[in-house]
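ugh finaly. both done.
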Amino acid sequence: MALALREQEYKTELVDIYHAPDNLTYVVEDAPELGILKSLGIVKDAIVQKIMTYKLGGPVLLQVESCEIAISKDIAEKIIVRG
């Protein structure tokens, strides 16, 4: 039950994608102005699914449309999403 309450908290507040719970879908609220992110479809109002965060400061695996993309921790911490 505590996990369900924690997931509900993330649905109403903004959080960076690195610290957001895995296996949920999010809407991008803010992302760095990097050409590579734009070309991958990670822009404001894009819908992304966070698949998982790799351990020990590793990358974040996201699904954007039908593509799976690994984003470094440094960039993932700058992508702000809401649930």
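ok and the 2nd:
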Amino acid sequence: MRDESLLALVGISKNYNAAPLLRDISFDVAAGEIVSVLGPSGTGKTTLLRMIAGLEQADAGRVLFEGKDLQTVPPHAREFGMMFQDLALFPHKNVFENVAFGLRMKNVSTSETRTRVQESLELVGLGQRFAKRDVNTLSGGEQQRVALARTLAPRPRLVMFDEPLGALDRILREELVGELRALLKRLHLTALYVTHDQDEAFAVADRLILLNAGRIQQMGAPIEMYHQPANEFVARFLGLTNLLEIGNWKLEVGNTKTIAETKAGNFSVPFKNGNARFVLLRPRAVERIVDQTERAENVLRGKIIARQWRGGHPQIVVETRAGNFVFEWDGHVEGEREKVFELNADEIQFLKGADE
């Protein structure tokens, strides 16, 4: 646990129907840090939040806040805020009454409640003019802002988000996730943000925790995980799908490199010890497209079967004997005939399997 940790999970495990859901989960969160818990559906992300909130108990392990074990602290006494995907707004209450709900549960005075509701509505970009609006007449984005204002109004010590933008269309989601990060940073709030969407996680978080099958696969800053995925699962989950299974290894005599043999050809990166199972060809791996090459390694042979535009980048789809691969490429493209794609060794990585 880091010295600056505000929240710490130590060896958390949880079973459902005698099957493990979470297994030995340990991580910490510093004050003012936004940490996104990322992973496929059913991997225990929501259960983890519920245990931190005190709504469920772990079978093993501890949840610490400011160094104090929370096991005997009831949910309301933890003073944590939580925002869900379904928002759970009260349809029979107006905006003011929805935002004020948590404050009234804490017996905050009427004048203080009025002040905090107004402040919270201003923070989320709605303002006092929305206070008397019927929540059923609001747009999806406005309802999200009301739910966020309700979460922030009691001034929680920790804010947790469970797929808070999952029900919105992509354009609105991208707009709100940027605003949310800016707001959390401006208020210096500590937050845990659960999502299955890697783009959303990358946009909001200072640090990512990627779960699969109840275990942490990798933790780190978004740019670190994208450029150095720990294994094949992490790469695939982050959209790095140009993967080749390694069939055999050979050591080049008198050299410091090992060579990975795959169905698409041989690949080498200096100083690798041959314990990986996959070759990852990163999106910008193509260095040159030529008719012939003298290289024996780090090349693909195939033909371009499609051009496309994804994520703001022009891409080519290359058909090879080992399958199709997608690369970013904004140079000249000549399809139909087979070509040689020379690859930059710096854009090739060897990865462990997901179960190692």
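summary for the 2nd one i guess: The chain has two domains: 5-237, 243-351.
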